[in-house]
Specification:
186 residues, alpha+beta, Aminopeptidase, eight-stranded mixed sheet, 5 helices, binds coenzyme A
Length: 186
């Protein structure tokens, strides 16, 4: 693999770029404090912008590692910061990674995360040399499953009642999906 880290990328409607500490206000306002966005996630709404600032400081520091694949999603037209996408747990020997993403509610349902993730997959397979990208979502999180499906990630199994939602305590099934390099774009 040729690790290139979080290179700035572009699609028709989006700029994907590195996070900066001064993104805190927009990120907090647009989704990081929204319980609807975090409903199926492994973190709770931040509650206080100080939490967001501390997190973004950490994220900025992580770019020193060339294996860090973590983008802020910005709308080209307006320059608004609307979401987050990353490839976590990049493994050099296995050539694998796992996607994670979220976006402000105001921008859901416009095909934007699908557009962002397709470009990340192109970058990961064509430029960096990943072999496999996987993703997992709560079975009830239809929108997330659909993004993965539209991007070509095939269902690979269900972990029954694997995850307990942080806010409601409900136990939900987790669907695992994945795509291989040779499947991308087919
Ligand atoms: C999941 C998420 C990133 C999707 O982003 P998005 O930009 O709205 O996604 P897209 O518009 O590219 O695609 C969403 C698809 O799901 C469909 N969808 C969404 N909710 C749906 C529902 N309740 N029932 C049926 N389809 C639904 C949309 O119609 C669209 O499919 P289509 O293009 O075939 O019409 C966004 O909803 C989000 O940030 N959610 C909160 C955080 C989260 O859950 N992250 C993922 C954790 S695994």
């Amino acid at each position: 693999m040729k690790h290139k880290g979080t290179k700035a990328l572009e699609t028709d409607r989006l700029l994907l770029r590195q996070w900066r500490e001064d993104d805190a206000e927009a990120a907090f306002t647009n989704w990081m404090n929204d319980p609807e966005v975090t409903k199926y996630l492994t973190w709770k709404p931040h509650g206080d912008i100080k939490v967001t600032r501390e997190l973004l400081k950490l994220w900025e520091a992580e770019y020193a590692d060339p294996w860090c694949y973590h983008w802020a999603i910005v709308l080209k037209g307006s320059g608004e910061l609307i979401g987050d996408i990353s490839i976590m747990r990049a493994s050099e020997y296995q050539e694998t990674g796992e996607v994670g993403y979220c976006m402000g509610r105001a921008w859901w349902g416009k095909g934007l995360m699908t557009e962002a993730f397709r470009e990340i997959l192109r970058y990961c397979f064509d430029e960096v040399g990943f072999y496999r990208i996987s993703g997992s979502h709560a079975a009830d999180n239809i929108g997330s499953g659909r993004v993965m499906e539209k991007c070509g990630l095939k269902p690979e199994g269900v972990r029954r009642r694997f995850f307990r939602l942080l806010l409601s305590g409900e136990r939900v099934d987790i669907v695992d999906r994945g795509i291989l390099r040779e499947e991308f774009g087919k």
